[in-house]
Specification:
The chain is α/β, with parallel strands linked by helices. The chain is built from 15 helices and eleven strands. The radius of gyration is 26 Å and the shape is elongated.
Length: 433
């Protein structure tokens, strides 16, 4: 990303950009607008690439970090795109800045590719607007995700006019090859890993629902079977994007973590009703076909470097914790689980059985949180979180720690375990939300 940004900035500078800026006036306005457009183009493609499920990026960074980069690149690219439009119209408008809207209208209907670019920009505005915190919080995940898919169409319509008419894209063979190559790489990534691989895995494994069983805290577990699940590559702690061929809205994908360690013959997820799609999960029937994307996620045993492990989860975040506990116990690890819940514990009987039969150390933290600055329940007493954690797991500092839960909660837990002496490199976090 940084190499591409530096390269296009260098080409801009040596292609008249610095000369135009030094000349001042509308020439400077035009050149700054041109640079903003170039940088916005790179970052728009970075946005698409970070959510293309490219395996090497998934393994190196994980979805949490890729989503953060996607969001930051989106904010900057959108701002630069708006700046590009405003400055480009200002520089060409005979009446100055006040005439820029009229010039925008004129360019839309006279410049090649500008009608498509305008439609694409409007779609990107829609995506950005629905991603703003207060608006995003009011939308269910499934509806927001459906709107967010328009970003692909927006990028596809907004950028091609530069490839056809922009001098930065056509002034040399090297620049033409670079830009078309960048587009090709991103397009291939989307086609192969967002479309091709999920379709191939779905057809190969033919996963169907075997049973839907109730769990605690208003959740249900979906047990699934399929062909050759041993070569799917799913690990305990990972999640997949699931589409159940049942009823309306089946085309929308839902990210659910595995709640049992994969055994090569079956898969299990545990779902709580939190959105449009999850409301229909309890009504799934035996034999329902399942479409999959994944597996994804870095909250796996691949990162473990210690024979002692602490798994800390809250609410539905206990689903990957449950799968990891099963796997690590099978590998003869010393496992401690901290189970945080407000009303009813999830997998209570399973964790009790693992404690009785496999030596799992189970620590429960029930009830409402004892304060805004604490992640423990009220039963932890008046001591600080670090002291409370050390009292329950005295050897926490020598353990590998896995954390899963809501964003704010996991931030507090991570801060606590690091303060308790766990090196940051041995703390692995996955957020849900």
């Amino acid at each position: 990303m940084w190499a591409s940004l530096l390269l296009v900035a260098y080409w801009w500078a040596t292609g008249g950009g610095l000369t135009g800026v030094s000349a001042g006036g509308l020439s400077a306005v035009a050149e700054v607008g041109r640079l903003a457009g170039l940088l916005a183009s790179v970052l728009l493609l970075v946005q698409v690439l970070t959510t293309a499920r490219v395996p090497v990026l998934e393994r190196c960074f994980g979805q949490n970090r890729l989503v953060v980069l996607h969001r930051r690149a989106g904010v900057v690219s959108f701002s630069l795109m708006v700046l590009h439009v405003v400055l480009a119209c200002w520089a060409r408008a005979p009446g100055g800045l006040v005439a820029a809207p009229q010039m925008l209208w004129h360019l839309t209907w006279t410049e090649p590719g500008m009608v498509a670019a305008t439609v694409g920009t409007v779609l990107l505005v829609l995506v950005v607007a629905t991603s703003v915190g207060p608006i995003r919080a009011r939308l269910r995940y499934e509806r927001w995700h459906l709107l967010h898919l328009y970003a692909y169409l927006g990028v596809g319509l907004a950028l091609p006019h530069q490839l056809w008419t922009g001098r930065e894209f056509t002034s040399s063979t090297a620049r033409t090859v670079f830009w078309w190559g960048l587009w090709a790489v991103v397009l291939v990534a989307v086609v192969v890993w967002r479309i091709g691989l999920p379709v191939a895995r779905t057809l190969r494994h033919r996963i169907t629902v075997a049973a839907v069983l109730p769990e605690g805290d208003g959740s249900v577990s979906v047990h699934m079977t399929g062909r050759r699940l041993d070569v799917l590559g799913a690990r305990a702690g990972q999640f997949l994007i699931w589409r159940f061929r049942a009823g309306r809205g089946w085309t929308r994908g839902h990210p659910y973590s595995l709640s049992a360690a994969p055994d090569g013959r079956s898969l299990r997820i545990t779902v709580k009703e939190l959105g449009d799609g999850s409301a229909g999960v309890p009504n799934l029937r035996q034999g329902t076909r399942v479409l999959i994307e994944g597996p994804y996620g870095r909250l796996t045993g691949r990162a473990r470097s210690s024979p002692r492990v602490a798994l800390i989860g809250a609410g539905v975040g206990m689903t990957p914790i449950r799968a990891l506990a099963e796997q690590f116990l099978a590998e003869s690890a010393d496992v401690a689980v901290v189970h945080r819940f407000s009303r009813e514990p999830l997998f209570a009987r399973e964790f009790t059985r693992l404690a009785r039969e496999r030596g799992l150390r189970l620590v429960v933290s029930p009830g409402p949180r004892r304060g805004t600055g604490s992640w423990f329940g009220r039963g932890a007493g008046r001591v600080d979180d670090v002291t409370a954690l050390r009292a329950r797991i005295p050897d926490i500092a020598v353990r590998e720690v896995y954390i899963c839960g809501p964003v704010g909660w996991t931030t507090m837990v991570r801060r606590t375990v690091v303060a308790a002496g766990v090196p940051d490199r041995r703390v692995h976090v996955e957020n849900f939300g």
